[in-house]
Amino acid sequence: MPLSRIVTLIAGLIVILGLSLWLIDSLTRLYWQLSYSPLLGNLLLLLLIVLIGALIAAFVYYVLVIQGGEQNSRRNPRIRPQVKVPEAKSEAASSTLQAVRQQVSQIQDEVARQALLSKSREIEANLARGEIQVVVFGTGSAGKTSLVNAVMGRMVGKVDAPMGTTTAGETYCLRLKGLERKILITDTPGILEAGVAGTEREQLARELATEADLLLFVVDNDLRRSEYEPLRALAEIGKRSLIVLNKTDLYTDEDKEVILARLRQRVKGFIAIHDVVAIAANPQAVQLESGDIFQPEADILPLLRRMAAVLRAEGEDLVADNILLQSMRLGEEARKLIDAQRRRQADKIVERFQWIGAGVVSVTPLPVVDLLATAAVNAQMVVEIGRIYGCELNMERGRELALSLAKTLASLGIVKGALQLLSTALQLNVGTFIIGRAIQGVTAAYLTRIAGKSFIEYFRHDQDWGDGGMTEVVQRQFQLNRRDEFVKAFIQEAIARVVKPLRDKSESGD
Ligand SMILES: Nc1nc2c(ncn2[C@@H]2O[C@H](COP(=O)(O)OP(=O)(O)OP(=O)(O)O)[C@@H](O)[C@H]2O)c(=O)[nH]1
Ligand SMILES: [Mg+2]
């Protein structure tokens, strides 16, 4: 408690006691005058005691609570009792997390599943704890650690001129009177350092930045392109950021204003003017004329003021938005993993069916070329791919889909196109005689593949062919599968699986 307040308190109590003595004296006299009625006298005594008690209580309350509160809020403008995380948002985050956990349970890769689960637990714990995460981010040597030291009011991190002084994320807890939430301030390694270690540290810094409720992006000059890009990317995903121009003690006032104006101009689209502030976290010592060394104090008030205003006005929303954002990102990550996993499974199905079709067709060649498509697109394959994507189709529906795709293959001329493409490729590899018999089988395998890949796209998008319809999807798959390197690999496999068995058969005189 400051001395001035203690003095006021003692003086006040003396005055109150003096007044009370005077009052007691006057009232004693009144009491004697009322001595004819003991009840009235006692009542007066009680009244007196209550009055003195109330007076002392009111005075102590005024000095300790009201005045103390005012002083605190003057010194730390960020103080204001907080309300809970906006309910709608926290509920949205909870339900997103629940959905993510359901998704995660479908992931077969144990390592990936555990990683996602632990992240979802972490987000949930954050939701429960409700701390405000402030992350200090920026180029190496811009003065991030110096900023954290200044804000914490003591040396918590090592400061040095070369880049790469901070190698890991360090978090410190900042408790502010009157603010329900704790503030966690995290120092990160600098971005844009050279070397592999630098890149790894940069990755860590970027991850920490994406987890922040509020980002302090520290620069010591105008933004370089390499700083602008990560900053814009973070702002684009909705990261609330302040730009902190540090080392202003090195600039003249005019230069400082010029740099500030330039910074504000550069980030105009995504960061407000007030959110670009100038500080000197660890100003250089100066030599006075007397020869003494003078160490100026850190000037971080503009940052503290802005941080306070932002946290006061948006703190709750920032926490809620960030938790929601993170759970959505986690959901997106899980979705991608599941998609890749399903794709691998579906690709295996297509692979299996393409060679089944090839075997059947090559032993019983078809009279009409376009019939090849019908023979190739197998209803069972459609049903099995659907199942991978959680769509239970019956065989009837599978056949319907297979047939319409076969028709599309024929109508687009893909059957003829494939025959031609594969004949040419086969001719380069095997004798003409054997091609005649193998070509339909090989083409059937190829068409099955295109059909299968098209169905994967269809089921991936919730049984939707997209704006361009089935035609566009099928055509795209044909384009993708006619690339040279793919055709070469396909022909090698076709020779082993279709041509060779046929040749063996004919050589054995069958
Ligand atoms: N003149 C001046 N120098 C400063 C100021 N703040 C930091 N520095 C100096 O800048 C250098 C780098 O400071 P750090 O705080 O280590 O920078 P950092 O961003 O944490 O660096 P890394 O951890 O390597 O990324 C040190 O030599 C500091 O003394 C400032 O306000 N003015
Ligand atoms: Mg540092």
Describe this structure as you would to a colleague:
The chain is built from 16 helices and eight strands. It has 510 residues and is an alpha/beta fold. It has helices at 3-33, 38-75, 87-105, 110-129, 144-152, 195-210, 225-236, 253-266, 301-363, 371-376, 379-388, 395-411, 414-427, 432-460, 469-481, 484-507, and strands at residues 132-138, 170-174, 183-187, 214-219, 240-245, 276-278, 286-287, 293-294. It is elongated, with a radius of gyration of 38 Å. Helix content is 66%, strand content 7%. It has a six-stranded mixed β-sheet with strand order 2-3-1-4-5-6, with helices on both faces. A two-stranded antiparallel ribbon has the order 7-8. The longest helix has 63 residues, at 301-363. It folds into three domains: 3-75; 132-309, Rossmann fold (3-Layer(aba) Sandwich), CATH 3.40.50.300; 364-507, no CATH class. Magnesium ion (MG) binds at residues 144-145, 157, 165-166, 187. Guanosine-5'-triphosphate binds at residues 140-146, 159-161, 163-166, 189-190, 246-247, 249-250, 280-284.
CATH superfamily of the largest domain: P-loop containing nucleotide triphosphate hydrolases
The outline comes out as elongated
Helix content: 55-70%
CATH class of the largest domain: Alpha Beta
The low-pLDDT segments are: 68-83
Number of helical elements: 16
